[in-house]
């Protein structure tokens, strides 16, 4: 059973969208995480639309999930602080994984 972590971030903030976007990618590149997917979109927070991103990280097995989850939380906390965000969400779910 694979474990999927998803980090949800908004880019609006006092430092601006582009600065916060660069902050996210910088944190990810320095995190030690070997692979991830970032999807940029428009989200809504507190009734207001804003540029946002979801970061998807997949651990192929439970044995590696704890370490990957700790990295995901570390990135989320650092982003929240550096981008001056009210909230950053991290979800965790188990799902079947088929590698082709």
Describe the overall structure.
It is globular, with a radius of gyration of 14 Å. A four-stranded antiparallel sheet has the order 2-3-1-4, covered by helices on one side. The protein is built from two helices and four strands. The two termini are 16 Å apart. Helix content is 35%, strand content 37%. The mean pLDDT is 95. Strand 2 (37-45) and strand 3 form a beta hairpin. It is of the alpha+beta class.
Provide a brief overview of the structure.
It is built from 2 helices and 4 strands; from the N terminus they run βαββαβ. The chain is an alpha+beta fold and 100 residues long. It has a 4-stranded antiparallel β-sheet, with helices on one face.
Q: How is the topology of this model organized?
A:
Layout: E1 2-10, H1 17-30, E2 37-45, E3 48-59, H2 62-82, E4 89-95
Antiparallel strand pairs: 1-3, 1-4, 2-3
Helix pairs in contact: 1-2
């Amino acid at each position: 059973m694979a474990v999927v972590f998803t980090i949800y971030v908004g880019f609006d903030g006092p430092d601006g969208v582009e600065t916060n976007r660069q902050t996210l990618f910088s944190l990810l590149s320095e995190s030690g995480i070997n692979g991830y997917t970032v999807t940029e979109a428009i989200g809504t927070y507190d009734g207001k639309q804003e540029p946002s991103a979801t970061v998807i990280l997949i651990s192929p097995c439970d044995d590696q999930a704890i370490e990957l989850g700790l990295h995901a939380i570390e990135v989320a906390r650092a982003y929240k602080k550096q981008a001056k965000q009210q909230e950053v969400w991290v979800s965790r779910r188990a799902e079947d994984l088929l590698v082709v």
